[in-house]
Structures are given as structure tokens and as C-alpha cells.
User: What shape does this take?
Amino acid sequence: MVNYAWTCSCCGEKYDTLPFDWSMAAPDDYNAVPEAEREVRTLISRNFCTVDGQAFVRGVIEIPVTDFDGTLRFGLWVSVSEASERTILQVWDDPDCSRHGPFFGWLRSRLGPYPDTLNLKASLRLRDDIAPAIDLKPTDHPLAVDQRRGISVTRVAEIAEKLMSHR
Ligand SMILES: [Zn+2]
Assistant: This one.
């Protein structure tokens, strides 16, 4: 939460903080598995998930906020190859894990305020001591454009309205 006064345009509610950090607890592939089958077909922890043997890693898409001191962060999931999965698990706890990779991944989280984000091409970049970064390939997709160019704090508030499901 960042101190910033704003009024929700849908309900008129006034806030004095604005969330800059969002995170999805699981990839969409996991959410799609019926609850009764999850024990058999899936494994999940804070940063790793497998569904029917396919591995997913949680990373962070960081979007610079151009007219305010802050960075908007979306914790989202990418699918990675078996070879990448092996390396990532092996080096995850190394203090210099950032020496490895980056690793190719497909984005496997939908993000409501944006047009369909499933299967955007991404690069997962391990960082020492903090969650990996997700760098989207430089396409024309609005999320990829926002990551490259940054967004205004007004737009951060619009995104918050949508993610808080006020509409
Ligand atoms: Zn509202």
C-alpha cells in the first residue's frame, strides 16, 4: 500500500492508500483443476506449482509508475520447460542464483484489467534474495507496452478499481 488519495470512480469510495502489489496465488492451470482432483494432479507452494507434471513458477511483472515514486507489481505465473524447472529448483536457494538463466516461459495468469494475457511470451529472470522478475517479450500487447513505457498513477488507481472487483 502506498499513500495516495483517490476516489473510486465506480462507487465514490474515498481511499488514502493505493495498492501497488498484486499477486495470484496459483496459475490459471491450477485453478482450472476441479478441487477433488487437485491432491492427485497438482502440487503448489508459494513460488512453484505443477499441474499434471507441467511446472509453473511465480514471478513479478514490474511496471514503473512514471509520475509517482513507486512501482506497480503483479505476481503472476509462467510455465517453464522441464529442463528449466530442473535448473531453477537446483539453484533457487543459491545466494547468486541470478547467474542462471533467464528462462523462457509462457504467462499462465489472466489479469482482469488487461486484454487476455494468457500465453504472452516471457522471460523469467532469477534475482538474488527476491522473487524472480518476469520480463515480457516486447510485443504490442498493452501489458507488455506498459512494462516497457511505464504508466501513470491515475492508471494504477483504475487498475486497482478493476482488481478490487468494484465493477
Ligand atoms: Zn468502487
